[in-house]
Amino acid sequence: MSEGEGKSMAQVHNIRAAKKIVETVKSTLGPMGMDKMMVDGGGNVIVTNDGATILRELDVAHPGGKMMVEVAKTQESLCYDGTTSTVVLAGQLLANSEMLFEKGLHPNVICRGYHEAAQMATNYLKDNISQDGSDKELLVKVARTAITGKTLENALDKVAALCVDAVKKAGDAESVRVLPLPGDSLEDSYLFNGVVVNKDYYIECTVANQTKVLLVNTGLTQEKSDDNVQVQLDAESYQTFKASSKDDILSHAKLIVSLLPDGGVLFCRDSVDDHVCAYLKKHNVAVVRRVQQSTLKALSKSLGIEIAQTVLDIEVSADAVIRRQRHHDVWYLFVEGDCADDMGTLILRGATTHTLEEVERGFDDALGVVSLVMNNDSYVYGGGTAYVEMAAHLRQHAATIGGRAQMAIEAFSDALETIPATIAENAGYDPLDTVLAMRHEVLNDITWMGPDVEEGGLTDMRTLGVYEPTALVRQAVLSAGEVAIALLRIDDIIGRRPVE
Known about the structure:
Number of domains: 3
Distance between the termini: 33 Å
Radius of gyration: 29 Å
């Protein structure tokens, strides 16, 4: 094998590995996408059609395949959804590049054309396809689009409304607290106006539903000295030394009791000594210890008080309604404060653990896309219509580029149409007929007709309420273009020495 053949083989191997990744997730795209059952050596099972989860759990050895998995992770971290679209688009770009190789195009020419096409397409998306709006009715439709085809579809309307309410309350998807609780059905999911703490009182204590709460960013334990000092004490002196240290902690406990004369609840980030908990219990003060920092911050926001750094820094307590609930032998504290309108927890219910895991993944995607539209105020029609519009624009302007790069731009436009084609194919209809029909509609300035997954042919995306965030489509095009270019620029695979 000559040196040139060896280098071209490297590109072929990378393209084949990428296409294998695409084949794994392609059938999950769209509202009629199929599920995958993933099983490891220990018999643990995941059933999902979430592209991000499938790619994350895949055992990929080939470096070209790993690059495809990485781009899916980037898409998920930035846009929460659209990972399957990104991977399918990238795979089609690589497949089209093989045909360009056969026509004599150099990889660098293809890369230049792909880069220019991605920029041209996303600029057209922003300036001509994207529409402004973020009212609640639109956000519900965006959530419905993300949920369709997933387990959540069984309670479509309720789940979509829950997602919108949760994001509006929290401000963005990252701030939404989600708690999956096995039992009941998806219809029983709800948004709790407060914070759910996955803890119980350290010592069983009777606390009124309406009570006072303190938040402390430390614990109540005897501190150990780091100084390496040797001191000789007799038995009597040692007992006096221990008692003085214990008195310091009890003095803090007495301060807490003075702040909660009628009883209440103390939430601490660190540990609390047993004798302190017992003392506080005698004065009707329950202790919740080792509370996560993120939970303390959520409680602070919900209750409207600052987190005290030490017991001596406590200035004020907060009024709260606290209810204990037990789910599958685990106790939870449902805390609702005066500022609960600014903080909510999404309680997800499901019959089984496997069902609940898939429900949580679906909620994450829906919360994310709602947040994108709400914060960016822009959306496009779904069903792959935006991709067909971008493809038509690229074809129209490819000739103005000149040279061989225009062939790469035309190949990029063909790849964009693989999204609606795959949606139609997964629904059992002819992908070519669907794409040709959509092209015809776009040429007549009818940009809202997408694949009809129920009856075949095309249907009005506006009537169905199928909308996607502009940011999601834009990032999918850019990410797919970048990973395709990165793989095409690799002309050799060389072994490296092990990392020491």
